[in-house]
């Protein structure tokens, strides 16, 4: 079973740097170019939402499109440079959830979907989260 553990030889020196069993550290992984692109997507999604709701619908949509493009860019760069990390996978899934949620909220506010769609979407996401957790525990 993989998980997080204190690196060997670090138990008594007071450092709180945790290392993945496979050897990569969060500190190193967060600094990879693909993960920085993914983190920029979180900022673009937040900025796009603020701009959409408070400044301009058009510019908010443009920022959202740019955020969507970074979804492909980070995966491309990660595979091309060999910087695929578990942290990147987790961040990417989180960003996808934020991005999809933002788009569904916008579509619902604009009247393209009934509010029930948001409930169905959230139910689906939590269902898969629960099933994934149960699946991992059984394996």
Overall tally of structural domains: 2
Number of strands: 2
Fraction of residues in H or I helices: over 70%
Average pLDDT confidence is 80
Strand content: under 5%
Q: What is the SS-derived class?
A: mainly alpha
Q: How many angstroms separate the termini?
A: 9 Å
Number of helices, where a helix is a run of at least 4 consecutive DSSP H or I residues: 5
Order of helices and strands: EEHHHHH
Low-confidence stretches: 1-6, 10-22
Radius of gyration: 19 Å
Sheet with most strands? 2 strands, antiparallel
Coarse morphology: flat
The quaternary state of the protein chains shown equals single chain
How do the strands line up in the largest sheet?
A: 1-2
Write the layout of secondary structure elements.
Layout lengths: L3 E2 L13 E2 L5 H5 L2 H22 L2 H25 L4 H24 L6 H23 L1
Antiparallel strand pairs: 1-2
Brief overview:
The chain is mainly α. It has helices at residues 26-30, 33-54, 57-81, 86-109, 116-138; strands spanning 4-5, 19-20.
Features:
two-stranded antiparallel sheet, mainly alpha, disordered N terminus, 2 domains, 5 helices, about 140 residues
């Amino acid at each position: 079973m993989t998980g997080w553990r204190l690196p060997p030889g670090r138990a008594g020196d007071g450092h709180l740097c945790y290392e993945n069993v496979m050897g990569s550290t969060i500190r190193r992984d967060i600094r990879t170019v693909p993960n920085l692109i993914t983190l920029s997507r979180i900022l673009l999604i937040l900025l796009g939402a603020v701009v959409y709701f408070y400044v301009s619908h058009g510019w908010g949509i443009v920022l959202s499109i740019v955020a969507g493009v970074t979804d492909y860019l980070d995966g491309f760069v990660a595979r091309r440079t060999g910087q695929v990390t578990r942290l990147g996978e987790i961040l990417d899934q989180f960003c996808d959830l934020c991005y999809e949620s933002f788009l569904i909220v916008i579509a619902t506010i604009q009247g393209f979907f009934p509010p029930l769609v948001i409930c169905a979407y959230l139910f689906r996401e939590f269902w898969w989260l629960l099933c994934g957790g149960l699946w991992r525990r059984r394996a």
